[in-house]
Amino acid sequence: MNGVAVLLALLPPIAVLALFQHRRILAVLGMSVFSLLLAAVFLFAGAPDVAITEAAIGAALSTFVYVLAIRRSGRLVVAACDVPGLVHEERGTVAGLEVDLLERVARSAGLELVVQLMPPDEVLAAVRRGDADVGAGGLLAGDEAAGLCTAPVHLRTAQFAVRRRGARDDAGAPHPFRGEMSDLIGSARRGEPLAVELDLARLLALVRSSAANLDVTRKPGEFGYAFVVAERQRDLLRRLTAEVNLLLRDGSVEGWAGRHLG
Amino acid sequence: MKTTRIVVPAAACALVGAFCAIAWHGLDGAGPNAADVSPWIESAEALGARNVVSSIILGVRILDTLVEILVFTVAVLGVRYFLELPHGRAAAEEIPESRLVGVSAAILLPLIVVIGTYVTIYGHLSPGGGFSGGAITATGLLLVAAAVGAERVGARFHEGAFERVEWGALAALLVLALLPVPFGKAPFTDLLPAGAAGRLLSGGTILPYNLLIGTKVLLGTWVIIHHFLRHRGEI
Question: pTM, whole model, 2 decimals?
């Protein structure tokens, strides 16, 4: 069997492989490999001119166009933690005030909104790494870390020190809560010691779902929920700022707050 | 940062140097001997070209090639016309690339440009020609566009000048094709001497045709891709 026959035999499997890739970038790379092999076939078949053109246009140029197109076919990826009312799962999809708000931002930019739920401590890391464009889920303005910026506050909130009423003081001083809401609710239901600082949305969720007898004191100071973006995403921050301000002015955010937070 | 500033140009120079050395010793005039490709030897030899394919598409079949270039021009025009940004609408936002792509582009761009130019200039001697050479060079431009953003590359190279050179290349092609007419000869007649087969300056008008077609294809491809990039493919 000669070289050209081997290369020709390889072409159909590679084309099929490219066809059945779920990630678009892998499909494009598969077609690029296909073109490169085809160029080799042309070369060995005594058509070097055609081989050069196939390699330049099939393997390089069109692959480039596809790669750039994929990067541009917009998705606004949001990393968020679960906070009932702001971002939560509801009948298999995500819903909440922040989801509605980001949906508007995405639509105005011609992008598709993709929300990835993750533990709270991973949200900021995902945005900093560039795995997500926006961090959401009850993030407080002024809380962000190095390399990240916050969009304007879209909803005012308050911080509360929360303790179980009548419990012995064995849980220590209240500390800002950074875990999953479901864990907190679970531990409150089991009657475990509780001493945390919560924002309004999380406190509402805790009170509604655990029915625990809580001692709540409001912390002094002004707090607000805001979205977080990476510092390098200046255009996105600008767009987010403009859109949030617009939605605050026309009263949309107020309406969503009434619907989702009650 | 400082190492990158030294290493990247050094790596780029090394790649270009290696390619030039290989071309000098190995590839120069090493195209298939016209005598090996019997049916077309006469036309190729008459033109002084080693690359039989070039001698056909830019010799006896030059009219086909010219019409092909016109079709390409119409395609570029169409992209330009239909994807013109309406007033007040900003170009799609740039997505910054990772440093890896930026450094690779800096190292590879010179090599790609040299190979593209080589393939264009040696089109009558070795495989290649204006079409493939122009496409290869355009790939290099695209690589830079992907690394630093198409708008910045477009601004650096001045889009207006690009357009003038592109139309200039097309006009020169037509002039070159019709030049024999005032001399009382049929259009597309080769006025330049054939020269000794295998030398760089040989093959009559094939070399100027290749250069003009290469320029035209390079700039046309860039215009198409740049417009696509600006619009995210939306019309």
Answer: 0.61
